[in-house]
Specification:
Blueprint (H helix, E strand, L loop, with lengths): L6 H6 L5 H10 L3 H10 L25 E6 L8 H13 L4 E4 L7 H10 L3 E4 L1 H9 L8 H13 L4 E4 L5 H10 L8 H13 L4 H4 L1 H11 L2 E4 L14 H19 L4 E4 L6 H14 L5 E3 L12 H14 L4 E3 L12 H21 L7 H11 L3 H7 L3 H10 L16 H9 L8
Parallel strand pairs: 1-2, 1-8, 2-3, 3-4, 4-5, 5-6, 6-7, 7-8
Helix pairs in contact: 2-3, 4-15, 6-7, 7-11, 13-14, 14-15, 16-17, 17-18
Amino acid sequence: MRNYTTQMDAAKRGIITPEMKAVAQKEHRSEEEIRDWVARGQVAICANKLHTCIDPNGVGSMLRTKINVNLGISRDCKDYDVEMQKVMAAVDMGAEAIMDLSSHGNTQPFRRKLTAECPAMIGTVPVYDSVIHYQRDLATLTAKDFIDVVRLHAQDGVDFVTLHCGITRKTIEQIRKHKRKMNIVSRGGSLVFAWMSMTGQENPFYEYYDEILDICREYDVTISLGDACRPGCLADASDVCQIEELVRLGELTKRAWAKDVQVMVEGPGHMPLDQIEANMKLQQTICLGAPFYVLGPIVTDIAPGYDHITSAIGGAIAAASGAAFLCYVTPAEHLALPNLEDVKQGIMASRIAAHAADIAKKVPHARDLDDRMADARRTFDWEAQWACSLDPETAKAIRGSRAPEQEDSCSMCGKFCAVRSMNKALAGEYIDIL
């Protein structure tokens, strides 16, 4: 039996949980280091006590950068079997978290299937599910309705919930006054904004935050404080609405920690390259080092179909500057629900960005595979190269489709290969080119 309520509660009391031990082993850190970081809120171990098949991971800037994959059905694409294929493919490709953003039909069976079978961290956005769960228009829902859906998701075993707690009635006036180009592009944020506008009431996720914390404490659910005012285009980056909300999220972070509830803070969406590092440092200061979960950032607005690349560029800079968690972006961003190939492209782009950042911030053993790859390339050990690759199947397929005459080269250089020439020269061998 657990003699603690949450991972943070245990950490503050000096208890090293099985989840902390698992994270320490994965991260090449001591168990005491992990316990200390969890106690201070700088590492979150998102692990609902009812999600018994979870393979625990830690989220924090001093650990390996983690990847989240957004999935789920919509009214236009509603095949849960296809979504489950995407889930398992995402886990196989190295994603540490899956967010179910389903917005159509009976969502609970799929959500429960995830927490019963998937070892990754499972996240949701309960406000999406509220309209679907009650089958009522948004304006007819009450604050209690929203809170009850948070409880339902916690009871279903979800490890973290994104709640747009930082948007308030004050934000309505800010949005109207500051005339953003893209207004609010957060789906959850827009729903809360719309509900407040139609009912005249305060944001229930802000007004009843203490009740939500009690639910999260009971089930050990981590709160991901959603950034309702994240910029949806470069022109809106780092504006008053975004920064004012971030200040409020810092206050909410401290209130959660006081109740032993773990917190992640969501960060910007679209942002010019030169603003990313400053935003990461500002978040670390305002939110006292709570793990930062960034949605890209997407560094240019004009690459639809290639936003997995624009977000990987921003994600690498963000993670190297202190972000802990990257939400993948696929080529279908801004265009359509991603298919299986889009999911793969998005995951690989994010993993490359995360790995590059981990090397830059000198995460323990982050560069080991890169050094092994260099040795394997020098010796033309192709099997060792596949073993070091983030995506060995793609690498094998490319080489196999354009095979060279000789194994000690590739079809680009042949005998002009610099590595081949240097190996022979240093060994005192004759170098044949023609």
